[in-house]
Structure formats: C-alpha cells, structure tokens
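can u pls check wat happens w/ inosine-5'-diphosphate
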Amino acid sequence: MNNLEETLSIIKPDAVERNLDSEIKEIFKSKGFLIKKEKKIQIEKSEAEKFYKVHETKAFFDDLCTYLSSGPIVAMVLEKENAVLDNRELMGATNPKDAAEGTIRKKYGISIDKNSVHGSDSVENAKIEIDFFFKD
Ligand code: IDP
Ligand code: MG
C-alpha cells in the first residue's frame, strides 16, 4: 500500500541568507522527496501572522513573524510516501540543540528561532499550508 502525501517545507531566512537552499534541496531529493513546486519569496509580516496563527497566543509570536518576514524564503511542496512524518523526522527537533544527528536542524540550525526549516505537522495542516503558498 502506498501512502503518497504532500507536505509544505520552508527554507527559512537564516538558511537562505547563508545560501544553503540548494544544499538543503539536495538533502530532500536524496531522501526520496520530489520537489513538486517551489518558489523563493519574501512575505509581509501580516502574511507571516496568518501562516503562524496557531501560535498567536505564544510569547514568541511577534518575533517569529518578524523573523519569517525578514528575508527571502523558499517554500516547497514535497511529495513522498509518508511525506509529512518523514519530513518532520528529517528536519529534527524544533530546538537544534535537541535535534538528532543527521537532521537538517542539527546540521544547519542556529537557535530555536533560526532553525533553518519549517515542515507541516499533519496531513490536514499540510493541505492548508500548501494552499497558503501555492493556491492561485
Ligand atoms: P516546529 O517548527 O518544529 O513545528 P513549532 O512549535 O510549530 O515548531 O513552532 C514554530 C516555530 O516557532 C519554530 O520552528 C521556531 O522557529 C519558533 N519557536 C518555537 N518555540 C519557540 C520558543 O520557545 N522560542 C522562540 N521561538 C520558538
Ligand atoms: Mg509547527
């Protein structure tokens, strides 16, 4: 049985700023993810607030939205069997300090806020997040 899924991945400003986007895309490809769509954009803070609405009550919300809108990002639709969970595993823990060896956040993350990548946390949220960036 195959369980082909799509998930939304974002290469965050800290990684794009260090020109790590090609390298990170190669990692996704080498792990079997197909990059079905991608675009490099810079979003407005108001759009970041919409994207991260689930975190609006958190103390770090304002900094988070300022950060995501602070520079170019690469938004991608990744496709693979079990893409959502496999991407979360490949990304590693939210705080790079806690991320396992071999994960993207372990390798490139600078801090809990500058943790280089975003990935959808469920199939349902993946659909919402993909629409957010790619619905035209
Ligand atoms: P995730 O990106 O691993 O799914 P979430 O809990 O959904 O983690 O948080 C979204 C983003 O908010 C994280 O990637 C990180 O950049 C930031 N963040 C999460 N917790 C904190 C915190 O305690 N301080 C500062 N930033 C945080
Ligand atoms: Mg999350």
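The radius of gyration is 14 Å.
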